Amino acid sequence: MMMTITKRSNKPSNVRKWLFGAAVGLWGMFAGNSVFAEPSALKPPEMLSYSDLDVSAGDIFEHGANRISYAGIQGDQVVVHSIGVYGQIKKEISFPKQELEYVAEFHHTQDQGYIAGGGSQILKVDEKGQKEWGYTLAKADSYIVSVDQLKNGKYAAAINTPGSTSNSHVLHWILFSETGKALHEGDLEGVAFDRIHSLQHTSDGGFVVSGIEYQDGGKGQVVLAKFAPSGQVKWKQSIAVAEDSQNVDVLSLAEAHDGSIVTAGYYNHPNPNDPIRYLTTGYALSVDRSGKLQWTNILDAAFDRSMVNDIQPASDGGFIATGKVNEDWHGTVSRQSVWGIAPDGNTTWTKVINRASYNAGEFVQPLQNGQTLLIGTADGAYKLIKLGAAVGQN
């Protein structure tokens, strides 16, 4: 089957290029750390393969070292598959789901086993799928959002609990021993979450939690909270994605190679051409180890009605992100997009994939050789895509 790549081909005149560059430069003087996508410094990578991927609804993906894994419940079993560096797919293991209601998150563990959480349950099994321990959440109207293993072998879980006001939520965290004993737990004070997104272990032994809240007249903000290995809160930060942002959502959280934290998603903002239909624009942002904002990347306006579904650190010190762009108002047409982002937040290349009416990038796994594995969808069907490495422009 021939590969179809759709890219913008309109080439502005030199005068238009100069005017556009001047406008971006003036905007940059007023916008501080925010950056827009700049002309590509690298040639977008070539597509090496594009194939069907048999993934069941509700399966959860996991990033790994040179691999992607995914797990879901089939009947009374949790079934785990892995995708290798060459795109080879294999079934790793299946094991009884025990009391697990659904899988909200799962991970490989340091002892070659697995941990999964969802609803009111956490389940830990060994490398053969035998149950080692489980945990049942006793809090009413609460559920497990995310669970991960820390660098020291212990585990941390993020729980969504009801807040004191309507539609607000409180982050409750629990720190477990290697054998599943609850060691410490507490609530993150001072933040009324609209949604808690995920918990991610960090290289310093602690963990970070992401989510969103609404303040300052109802404008959405990204929330990041960093915890020490003991569970002590080291810092928390609320960040407005843009001055005109309204609704905002976090769809991806990752740690960069230098220990900084990146997150990505989308935000809604007023449409100058239509007061009723707001625009949706994808973003990525980075904070340093202390929680200070380093940069915000707002996707080019040419990619209007866009969102970033996943972002991960790449082998060159930058990042690769994927999502969808140019979605129509009825949600029936869109294009999958992949972005290369430099360590300073500037976009170095963009690739658009258009193989069906509705295309979206869901998951990205940069490989150590500079290539990339992608999980996308085309008219609702999952696709496994492999890209080569980006190279310098001629």
From TrEMBL:
InterPro entries: Quinoprotein_ADH-like_sf. It comes from the Bacteria. SUPFAM superfamilies: Quinoprotein alcohol dehydrogenase-like. This is Uncharacterized protein.
